[in-house]
Amino acid sequence: MISFKGIVEASKVLEGVAIKSPLIYNSLLSNRYGCHVWLKREDLQPVRSYKIRGAYNKMASLSNDQLQKGVVCASAGNHAQGVAYACNKLKAKGVIFMPATTPAQKVKQVIMFGKEYIDVKLIGDTFDDAYSEATKYCNDHHAVFIHPFDDEKVIEGQGTVGLEIATELKDKIDFILAPVGGGGLVSGIVTAAKELLPHTKIIGVEPLGAPSMLSSIQSGKNTTLSKIDKFVDGAAVKRVGDLNFEICKDALEDVWLVPEGKVCSEILRLYNEEAIVVEPAGALTLSALDLHKNELVGKTIVCIVSGSNNDITRTEEIRERSLLYEGLKHYFLIKFPQRAGALRQFLNEVLGPNDDIVLFEYQKKTAKEKGPALIGVELHDKNHIIPLLNRLKSTGFGFDYLNEKPDLLSYLI
Do 270 and 401 belong together in one domain? Predict the structure, then answer.
């Protein structure tokens, strides 16, 4: 079982491999929410996430014979980079299975960290495809599978984050907020906190579209979600680890859910206000502060900033999700009468002076009285949407409000 002693031993194993990441007081957030906010900057690790801690600790526990036979993992992100880095450090051969749909930037990062010690195999369209092939490869080649979270040594490696927090911050800590995907990080933190921070409340933070830990705790058993929103890819899993669930089910104070759009707003805020680049999972804990600010007044909070491996090609999607969440972007199917002047009427009588059309798609239909136009409108103030809807109704334009039909919206946009 996971032990505090194992976490202490892992901290020694990781010396010279993973940095003792900075624990930085954030004045901006502290002033904004009337509390004391500290950021544990795991995004500054050599592989830009905490995953190096668990991957290296697991691999360092293997015998020379096991390392000679090689290790295997399946991942489309940070875990793959952690394993690749560890292979390079330990001079061990690794085979890393990634979905063929993995962005080229992430594949290049894995190769950069692993160099000649790793082979990357791009298999299938999903993580499950890659995982299945990785498992088969392990069986055929008698290699050791390095699980991303459901493993004792991996959890003890991640638990060094909690050990460092308790050692570095002498003030009383009221809350530690940790992102939850498979549960490896938060499992390690609660194990360390039980020994060193018995009065600190550990809060797991999950994306709203993938509440696997919360669902499991509420049902009293580890459950598999049938469908998830994969946007917060570092924390979006259908099922947490069995070992992780057993550790967390009674140890976590609570699990907070954060809408994906809120995460996007926080990513943009961190970049614009603080010049910090994070991936979606890295923004989870900071996103939760605003949603629970009344509970945090006067408290000391540590937020784990878990990673910064964000693909720049996702920037437009991040901005789009943020605007939708903040109520500043709205999409409509407008049924225009097919007569001259209909668009001019819409512009003059429906749109407000500061409303901006950001999308317009229309094609005239022959032998029909009305033709649909797909229109996107960006507002200066979210409160302007009610007057806009009222003007649409009063002028007689038929319309479908697509923000209330997310499946149709995702198909059209």
Answer: no
**Total domain count for the chain?**
3
* Residue 136 belongs to domain with CATH number: 3.40.50.1100
Pairing, β 71-74 against β 94-98: parallel
376 strand-pairing partners: 331, 359
Q: Which residue, chain included where needed, has tokens 């999409």?
A: 331
Range of the domain at 37: 4-44+176-320
Q: Are residues 181 and 40 in the same domain?
A: yes
Q: Among all chains, which residue has been given the structure tokens 């809350």? A: 175
pLDDT digit string, tens, across residues 63-94: 999 999 999 999 878 999 999 999 999 999 99
Closest residue by Cα to residue 50 from 40, 58, 60, 59:
40
Q: In this structure, what token pair is assigned to residue 197?
A: 């921070």
Give 189-244 pLDDT, tens digit per residue: 999 999 999 999 999 999 999 999 999 999 999 999 999 998 998 899 999 999 99
118 shares its domain with 198 = no
User: CA torsion 70→76→78→82, rounded to 10°?
Assistant: 10
Whole-number Å distance between alpha carbons of 309 and 287: 17
CA distances from 40 to 50, 150, 259, 303 (A): 10, 23, 22, 6
Pairing of strands 398-401, 329-337: antiparallel
Give the count of beta carbons closer than 10 Å to the beta carbon of residue 257.
18
Task: Name residue, tokens 């954060």.
Answer: 258
Work out whether the CA dihedral 281, 210, 122, 79 comes out positive or negative: positive
**How far apart (Å, rounded) are the C-alpha atoms in residues 153 and 92?**
18
Q: Please state, rounded to an integer, the average pLDDT across all residues of the chain.
A: 94
CA 82 to chain centre: 17
Regarding whether 185 and 110 lie in a shared domain, the answer is no
